[in-house]
Amino acid sequence: MHIKIGTRGSKLALTQANLVAESLKKIEPEITAEICVIKTSGDIMQDVSLTKIGGKGVFVKEIEDALLSANVDLAVHSMKDVPTEIPAGLTFAAIMRREDARDVLVSKNNKKIEFMPRGARIGTGSLRRASQLLAILPDLAIVSLRGNLETRLKKIETENLQGLILAAAGMKRMGLVEKISQYLPIETMLPAVGQGALGLQIRQCDQALEKIVAKLNHAPTAAEVTAERSFLRHLGGGCLLPIAAFGKLEGDKLTLEGLVASPKGESIIRDKVRGVITEADELGKRLAEMIMEKGGKKLLELGC
Fold this sequence. Notes:
Largest sheet: 5 strands, mixed
Strand content: 15-25%
CATH architecture of the largest domain: 3-Layer(aba) Sandwich
Helix content: 25-40%
Shape: globular
Distance between the termini: 45 Å
Low-confidence stretches: none
CATH class of the largest domain: Alpha Beta
Structural class: alpha/beta
CATH topology of the largest domain: D-Maltodextrin-Binding Protein, domain 2
Number of domains: 3
């Protein structure tokens, strides 16, 4: 079987696609894989904020179009980039074992976030990260950044930044752990929905490929991501307000924590629920309802 794997063209995306290709060959040695680079709207319009070009979906739409038109057979997505609603005819055959879901700080002189001076310039293109940072350190100056991982790392110097907030998963997959100054705890910085997890998307009708790809599914990660995406979906997945969620499975017990925040962190509504692995989707719905009742509905009405 020859499989065409669709992916974005950044070094990180290619690293992830090659990881998938190698994993497929381990379970089915006769498979040959071809990496097909697809430019997405999010990659092309790097000088425009994500909120202005559509937010979620700008890194996956063209890849999903290529899947639907059979130009590729399998798409590799970072699950944090995938909208809660996916096109008819497509499905996720596997969610692979999650890498570290936390955010990290990369800073000048390895300075920790709590020791940053007033007015320190911290770079991030994420409203979620900015709002949670400003909630604990309102004197920070948040500098909006776009671009791939390498581009953003260079901007510490070119934009005179004291630090950057990035995903631990990308830094680890790219072998850049030594550049990490600080891992930000979940209690301080709740991750994006699906952060650190890779989703393998195929056409629903491709049953032969589904049987193979399904062998790469990691059930605990799939349950965690299902709960997180359910939370986002029941809040209204198209909203561009800061939204975060993190599911953690221990044994058969699943804990889901989520939040909705105002853009500058003046108001954060945060809560958690617990259940069992089979309740993943229901836990997301339940947590969304709790957050809405505690003030999230008003925030969403003002910000969406």
